[in-house]
Write a structure and sequence with these properties.
Layout: H1 3-13, H2 19-37, H3 43-59
Helix pairs in contact: 2-3
Amino acid sequence: MTNELKKLIEAAKRVEPSPEHREEQRRSFAYGNTHFENSRITREMVNEQAEKLARQERDGH
C-alpha cells in the first residue's frame, strides 16, 4: 500500500457523513437487501416506506 493511499484511508476515517447522506445510505442498503430477495421491490417502494416511517416518527406514532 502506498503512502498516498494510507493518507487517503486515514482521511476517510475522519469524515462525518451528513444526516442526509446517512439516510441515502440506509435506503440504498434496504433496497439492495430487499431487492436481492424479491426482484419486484423497487427503489420507489423503499423511498415511499421510508417517508411513511419518517412521517409516523414526526407525528409520534
